Amino acid sequence: MLIGNYTPSLVLISVFVAILASYTALDLAGRVATANGRATYLWMSGGGLAMGVGVWAMHFMGMLALHLPIELVFDVPITVLSLLIAILASGFALWLVSQPRLPMLQLSFGALIMGAGISGMHYCGMAALRMQPGIEYEPARFALSLLIAFSASAAALWIAFRLRQQTPHVRLFRAGAAVFMGMAIAGMHYTAMSAATFADGSFCGAIGNGLRVDGLDKLVLIASLEVLSIALLTSILDARLESRTAELSNSLSVANRELTQLALHDTLTGLPNRVLLADRIEQAMRTVEEHGGWFALMFMDLDGFKPINDAFGHHMGDQLLREVALRLRNDMNGRNTLARIGGDEFVLLVELPERDEAPAYAAQQVTLLSQPFLVADNSVQISASIGIALYPGNGETQHELLMNADAAMYHAKAAGKNGYSFFDASMNTNARNQLQLLQDLRSGLKEQQFCLYYQPKFDAVTGQPIGAEALLRWHHPLQGLLLPDKFIGLAEKTGLIIPIGDWVLNEACRQMRVWHTQGYSHWRIAVNLSALQFCHTGLVDSVANALILHQLPANNLTLEITETTAMSDADASMAVLQQLAEMGVDLSIDDFGTGYSSLMYLKRLPANEIKIDRGFVRDLEHDSDDAAIVSAIVALGQALGLRIVAEGVETDMQQSFLTKLGCDSLQGFLLGHPLPAEKFMADINAAETPVDEQESASEV
User: Fold this and answer.
1) pLDDT at 246 over 60
2) Which residue did the predictor score with more confidence, 177 or 668?
3) Short-list 46, 9, 25, 66, CA closest to 180
4) pLDDT at 380
5) Quick one: which of 101, 114, 148, 121 has its CA closest to 56?
6) How many percent of the chain have pLDDT more than 90?
7) pLDDT tens digits for 309-365?
8) SS3 for 482?
């Protein structure tokens, strides 16, 4: 076996070249990470070339440092191939560390590729000697060299990835890391060299047309140092030029940021405004189109903000808006956008990995805003109604998404506030229809398009009329005669039920006064009160004014309120009902049996009658449970000394059953339909006229 020895000076030079190549690689990794556009690929290509030449030069210098008792010559094509392998492996390494993330699996795979490249370069370079017979390698040291190559590559990639940013003292850290990396690369090379064995009688097959070693070490050293120095110097100069350019443009950037802040942000809260929000939505749409995913646009409106603003002043309202913005902003992550687009309206743009994550995020915001706020030493409570539009699916443009989220928000408010609602295509149609109906409702009130129909009530025993229930109708100019279920809900939501209710009360009292004058002084006119109307502070005054205006005795008026309304705040209801009772007005508990009855409160309520809901009357003939319930209600009313009214009577059997039970009065389609006042009285007069008089009148 041929025994070789190493030239110490060349070994030291090879280690120095390895350290210099490592430092150059770390510096170029930083340039690649901060470059943009085409510059990224230029730095990556140039860096791969410089780093590859440096690593190859270290390897070649190490081979030149080996002396055997035979002449050594290197095959040119194989030597060039080893250089090409080094350049490609280096280019791959720079590309890998320029990625935004380097997870462990990707790091391991990259280390495997780079380690294979370095090992391939070395053993390809050794093959350039074309020894005859071939070089043999000790298996253990051969495997150790591969392990060192893999480990060194992993460490080099991890270090390069961590040190690619321009942080304080980064050059000092790079220098220390370069020493470690250079020693690791040299260690792999000399481990691999020690694994090689040359048989006695071996000779170099490249003699004749290969590269001779005489003076080659100096040529390789000079060339590699020049390449590395040029690459390193270029990187340093470029970094300094970039730093100076950044300093020169810093003042302009600051001014631009201030102008942008004013143009794109809300001055009160500092949040993005409508203009910036539109741009963020456009960006989010492009991201979804290019990379997939979802985002939600959450339109938030604060419930209860206006009363606080009105009660405490705009200064308090502004401070509350700042606190709301701060709470929402502290809860969100950096990828999302929170904007204030006016008044007490906020919009949250939320990136969603999965579509079904939107409900939980919206519920979190509702809970967040329902917690009390401490503003100027006052604890204030508000809530939020949130409308949600998803992309893709709920709009093609940012304008459509905002509009649809707004429509969903109004749907959430209509559903009771303090919650969220997802956009549905029907909401736009419904919103437009509701808006048009609201405008028509205001016009109808102003232009007196409303009228009252009257359904008669009869004494259960005698069958004589004892009054009527006033029922509201609307002569809509386009849709014709509308029943209350088409518009009362909207009137209650918008507060129009108060003026509409006052009109109904006055018109019913006026008509009852007419009948009173005609001799029906024993009749009572019944008027339904909505929950909002009953809670209104001006109710008692409105009733008193209507009675005085039309000179109607109070006992000719019956006010009907539902059981649920009366019991929702029993103590407050008691106070209002007591005032009305002291005035002499009759009070009736409507829809009795459908709410949550409390006998404790019911016996205290100053009511005169209870009204059995038509739902129990409808199935009397077929449902024994309903019959039992009606019997119990009648017995309860009689025990409390209340009049019993049954509504919804439509069959003779129902009339007979209710009369036998002891109901005081009945109403329903069997006895009479709701009619305008003139037709109502015509039917009453016709019923009161004896049969023989009707026949005589027909003969005439």
Assistant:
1) no
2) 668
3) 25
4) 87
5) 121
6) 30
7) 766 777 888 899 999 999 998 888 777 899 998 888 999 999 888 888 889 899 999
8) strand
Can you tell me the distance from the alpha carbon of 402 to that of 387, in angstroms, rounded to the nearest whole number? 10
Summarize pLDDT for 456-503 with one digit per residue, the tens. 999 999 999 999 999 999 999 999 999 998 888 888 877 889 999 999
| DSSP output for 77-113 | HHHHHHHHHHHHHHHHHHHHHTSS---HHHHHHHHHH
Residue count (the chain): 700
Beta carbons of 670 and 651 less than 8 angstroms apart: yes
Q: Which distant-in-sequence residues (6+ apart) come within 8 Å of 581 by Cβ?
A: 587, 606
Nearest in space to 640 (alpha carbons), one of 605, 668, 666: 605
Helix (H, G, I), strand (E, B) or coil at 381: coil
Contact (CB, 8 A) for 561 and 576: no
User: Hey, which bits of 376-443 come out as E strands?
Assistant: 378-380, 383-391, 419-422
Say how far apart CA 485 and CA 563 lie, in whole Å. Answer: 19
- What DSSP string describes 430-450? HHHHHHHHHHHHHHHHHTT-E
pLDDT at 441 over 80: yes
Supply the pLDDT for residue 461.
Answer: 93
Count Cβ neighbours within 10 Å for each residue of 72-98 and write b for 16 or more, e otherwise. bbbbeebbebbbebbbbbbbbbbbbbb
The pairing of strands 378-380 and 383-391 is unpaired
Query: What domains are there in the chain, each with its CATH number?
Result: 5-240 (no CATH), 274-423 (3.30.70.270), 447-688 (3.20.20.450)
Q: What is the pLDDT of residues 529-546, one digit of tens each?
A: 988 888 788 899 999 999
Is 70 exceeded by the pLDDT of residue 599?
no
Residue 586 half-sphere exposure toward CB, CA atoms < 13 A: 23
Average pLDDT over residues 193-209: 77
In this predicted structure, what is the pLDDT of residue 654?
Answer: 92
Those residues with Cβ within 8 angstroms of residue 662's Cβ, 6 or more apart along the chain or in another chain: 634, 638, 644
- Report yes or no: 189 and 114 within 8 Å, Cβ to Cβ: no
How many angstroms separate the Cα of 448 from the Cα of each of 274, 432, 434, 469, 528? Answer: 41, 24, 20, 20, 19
Among 379, 382, 380, 426, smallest CA distance to 407 is for 426
Report the pLDDT averaged over residues 413-430: 82
Q: Contacts by 669-677 with C-beta closer than 8 Å and gap 24+?
A: 671/456, 671/458, 672/455, 672/456, 672/458, 673/455, 674/453, 674/454, 674/455, 674/471, 675/453, 675/454, 675/455, 676/451, 676/452, 676/453, 676/454, 677/452, 677/454, 677/511, 677/514
Cα–Cα distance, 597 to 591 (Å, whole number): 11
Residue 125 to residue 253: CA distance in whole angstroms = 53
Least confident range of 225-229, 434-438, 556-560: 225-229
Give me the pLDDT at residue 451, please: 95
Helix, strand, or coil here: 637?
helix
Contacts of 15 (CB under 8 A, 6+ apart): 58, 182, 183, 186
Q: Which two tokens stand for residue 130?
A: 């074309």
SS (H, E, C) 186-243: HHHHHHHHHHEEECCCCEECCCCCCEECCCHHHHHHHHHHHHHHHHHHHHHHHHHHHH
What is the amino acid identity at position 164? Answer: R
Other beta carbons within 10 Å of 410: 20
CB 288 within 8 A of CB 335: no
3-state secondary structure of 629: helix
| Dihedral sign from CA coordinates of 55, 58, 62, 63 | positive
